[in-house]
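>> received
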Amino acid sequence: MCTQPLSEKLTLQLTKLQLPRITHPVIHRKQLLGQLTSSKQHVLIVAPAGYGKTTIVTQWLNTSYARQQIAWFSIDTTDNNTSMFLNYLIAALEQDHIDHVEARLQAYWELFNHPQTILSVVINDLMKSDDVEKVLVLDDYHLINDNNADIHKLVQQLLNTAIPQLKLVILSRTAPPYSIAKIRAENRLRELRFEDLLFTREEVHKYFYARLNLTLSDTQLDALNQFTEGWGVGLAMVALRMMNTNDIDAFIQQCAGTEKSIADYLLSEIFDQQSEKVQQFLVQTSLLNHFQGDLCDAVLERHDSYALLTRLENMGLLVIPLDTQRRWYRYHHFFRDFLRERLAQADDTWLQLMHRRASHWFAENANNNPESISAALYHAQKADQHLLLNTLQRFGTWLLKHGHQQLIIDYLTPFSIKKLGEYPTLLTHYLWALLGAGEMAHLRRVIDTSLSFIPRHMQGNALAIRAEIEPDWHQRRDFCLEALTLLDDDDLIARCMAQGNLARIAFFADGKTEHAIQILTRMVALYEQVQVMKLWAFTLDCLIAVRRHHGTLLEAEALCHHAIEVCEQHNYISLSCAFYSQLGKILYEQNRLPEAIDILAHCRQICDKHININ
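>> returned
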């Protein structure tokens, strides 16, 4: 059994799993919907921003599938962490059991601990299930970095495995950085590009009638079609501008005669129509990637933001709600970029103050929400270096425990090791994050560089971590012994890591099994005492394995019974399954076959009932 010692509990932002809401009238695009409906399996839609990828897929799903058949995952830049990406992917597929999904995910990592293995288990469960077809949508897939090979391998695994119960839909601004030739040749992929998403002349006519109850003449229709070239967001901006236009012909002629790009021209027209008060609010709030009334009030020191946001949405002013309660919003990407060009003209001191207020608001209202913590860090970075480091220091332990070590790495890597040495706790967080992310070469350089100037207790942490990645047994032993002399008594995780390495050295290198058992026994008791249950389970599993190897099976059996009792007291269902499995093997090795069969059958019943894992 492998666990993730640095990640005590998984946390998910469930709004990323919600099917987007369509906030304006849509037309039935028969030809395009027909292509999606007739698709035999997977769908890949690649087009730049504003071509209506999300809208057409949402419309198709709403008209063709029941809600429980739809699995939606809105990707953002924080999902470049492989384990986080996989957690959200699985959670999307498990939305009809969302109350139990975090326990299920925890069980997957405890039992398998490798992304591709976990995905294989999920695929097998899908193929064995009697459920109706599910559609899994990966929206904004272009936000996954091209060089993120681990995540792209997972998606390729889904694409290349013929799963009758699953249709995968990928929406992206750029083509995925891997070959799709195999599934294309097998006729298992429907591909749509930007030219497929363009509105036809007839659809443009229907759009303006649905949006404005306006019937365009052939001349008007031809002019608008030529101006927008069937670009979805361009049509939306034209409609928005037309709402306050008395002379439609004059406006259309003006559009046709402009030398500006369609986006620049229409956005300028829409913006100029607003009052000075609204213009100021739009520009200032574009500083925020997503926003709500209380946040805007705090940043701008006003008291009417909620009412103003509601008004902007009702006006159709390219403000997009992010949740069903309509509390959180964002601007359309084009509109946000347009507004930020004007924001860039503001005084730097004022901008830093706004970012500081935003960071403070997100930090104070984080409530263990990873998206809010990420926003607090983003705005802190924009404000000043000192605020960023203090914010990371505040949330570092939480980020490590909940599997968000990549955030720590991304924000701290640009700093010099000397600078991080001024924040001892933060440098320790950085070392643990690098260890958890498997960045061993960089971790080794950071530790070797920092040992000469960091405080004594930090040296103990650094040496305990350095021992973990040292291949030479003798050097590893020296690191562990020195770490134990430097560490504070209450620095339990680092002390136990060093002790665990000494136990491995005693068992594998020195052949001193009894000594290894003594060390592991002390560690298990200590972890159980301080309730660090993931490390307790990992260490106890090691102790049971050593006992089995040593031939002391009765002692190993007693440890399993104790472990199962503790797990059931604390409702750690997935951990208890692992120890039941160990117990079954031990009984089998003692030739107590009926008991082994009973235990393993009981283990399977628990797995089937609680976590659906065999």
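>> Residues 1-8 have pLDDT under 50 and may be disordered.
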